[in-house]
Every structure is written in C-alpha cells, then in structure tokens.
Amino acid sequence: MEFNNGIISLDCTIKSHVYLVKDQNGYTMIDASFPDLGEQIINEIKSLKIDLKSIHQILITHSDWDHIGSLKYLVEQIGCKAYISQIEYDHWMEKGKDYPFIPQECFELLNLTKKYVIPITHEYIGEFKVIYTPYLFHSFGMTMYEFNDSLFCGDFIQSKAGKFMLIPSEYNLDENIYLNYIKNFDMSNIKYIFQSHGKPLPVDNNWKELVDSIF
Q1: Please, are residues 52 and 90 in contact by the beta-carbon 8 Å criterion?
Q2: In what order do the strands lie in the sheet with 81-85?
Q3: In 10 A of CB 44, how many CB atoms?
Q4: Maximum distance among all Cα pairs of the chain, rounded to whole angstroms
Q5: Cβ(25)–Cβ(56) under 8 Å?
Q6: Rounded (5°) CA angle 117-30-10
Q7: Which of 94, 200, 215, 103 is nearest to 153 (CA)?
Q8: Do the strands 150-154 and 192-195 form a parallel or antiparallel pair, or are they unpaired?
Q9: How far is the CA of 161 from the CAs of 22, 28, 171, 172, 201, in angstroms?
Q10: Which of 30, 52, 87, 181 is 20 to 30 A distant from 144 in Cα terms?
Q11: More confident residue, 120 or 106
C-alpha cells in the first residue's frame, strides 16, 4: 500500500510492517519483519518496479524477532547498510538468549545478523531523526525514526479498527516506563504514525483520545 507522502507499506509484512520511505538518496527501509519473509519482501519490491540498489539503508526499531528476522537475508540481497541502537545492539548480542520476546529457535538466526548491523549513537541518520525511548521501555532500547511529519514507531503503539491502542502489558519490560513515556511524548511535529502492528493512522484527534483514555 502506498501513501500520499511516498511511503510504502509492503503487503507481505502486514503482521509486522516493513516500510519503504522515499528520501533524497533513494529509499530507506524500516524494519525487517519475521524470519523467512525475506524472499517475499524482495519479490514485492521488484513487483513495485523499485530497483534494489536504490535502497541504501535499513533502520531497525528494535530486536524483537518480528522486526529483525529477515534482516540478514535482506542485507545480503540488497547490499545496503543496516542500523540499530547501541543499547539494543549490546543487549541483543550479549544477553539475547534471555530476551523474553525472541523464541529460542530464532536466536541463532538473529545472532548471525550481528555483522550486518551498525550501532546508532547519533541523533540523525541522513534525513531521519533518531528518537531513543527509555531503557526497558518495551525492548531494551527501542528506537523510533522521524521523517518530515511522519513517525515510524515500531512497537510504541499499535492500532485496531481505526484507533490507536497500547501494546499489551505482557510485552513491555516495564509498564510504568511505557505509560509515562506515552503520556509525555511530544507529538506536536507529527501528523502521521506508521506503527508496526495495525494500519498507519493520522495523529489528529486519535492521539489525544488514546492518552485521555489512559490517564
């Protein structure tokens, strides 16, 4: 599905979205969805008549298996750089076997991806502003990416039936940190949210309704 602002949500990744964002250098990919989806992702990109060489980077929000599962395959096929936050990189690589949201059978695959990612320590990657969420927010160091007036938010929130919704509490490492961050998050520069789970939505009154329903 393509949106008016040149952002594409790949149909084959509907359960954990992969987005393509047209920028000044070609395309940026956001996240890498589940393992074993890599071939489908590549085939869909080709069906859209997008040259794989035009995809110059992949930005990962966090290291849950449904966000990084096909990264190794994609980087090998596309030949681009991939980025993940430093804190997420450190925990994933050093303590990944104890990470509650990575099934043990997937850990070996994810660990093989180490050499394909570059830890992020700065505030911008090209045109994308890097927004670091607090330690233990949802993952160990989930990162969001702001591009123009759009926010690519990973598991910050999800949506259902045209409404923003919280990520279920059992998927948060610290529920209080999660809720307080949402309450205080500045949405003034954001007009559209592209989350990983559920249909992307405009901010307008939807965000205020979510915050008011919680607090």
Answers
A1: no
A2: 7-9, 19-23, 26-30, 55-59, 81-85, 118-120
A3: 18
A4: 46
A5: yes
A6: 130
A7: 200
A8: parallel
A9: 27, 28, 21, 22, 10
A10: 52
A11: 120
Would you state the structure tokens that stand for residue 104, as one six-digit string? 């043990």
Sheet holding 150-154, edge to edge: 124-125, 128-132, 143-147, 150-154, 192-195, 201-202
Give the confidence band of 102 by pLDDT, cuts at 50, 70, 90.
low
Instruction: Identify the top-confidence range among 47-56, 96-105, 116-125.
Output: 47-56
Q: Of 191, 197, 208, 107, nearest to 151 (Cα)?
A: 191
Structural contact between residues 55 and 27, judged by C-beta atoms closer than 8 angstroms: yes
pTM across the whole model: 0.93
Q: Which of 88, 116, 115, 86 is nearest to 102 (CA)?
A: 88
pLDDT on residue 95: 58
CA pair distance 63, 58, nearest whole angstrom: 13
Q: Where is average pLDDT lowest: 77-86, 87-96, 133-142?
A: 87-96
In angstroms, the CA 64 to CA 62 distance is 6
- What lies within 8 Å, CB to CB, of 179 at 6+ separation is 166, 214, 215
Q: Does 64 have pLDDT greater than 80?
A: yes
For 203, residues 6+ apart whose C-beta sits below 8 A from its C-beta are 187, 190, 191, 192, 193
Question: Which of 172, 157, 176, 165 lies closest to 210, judged by CA?
Answer: 165
Instruction: Output DSSP code: residue 198.
Output: S
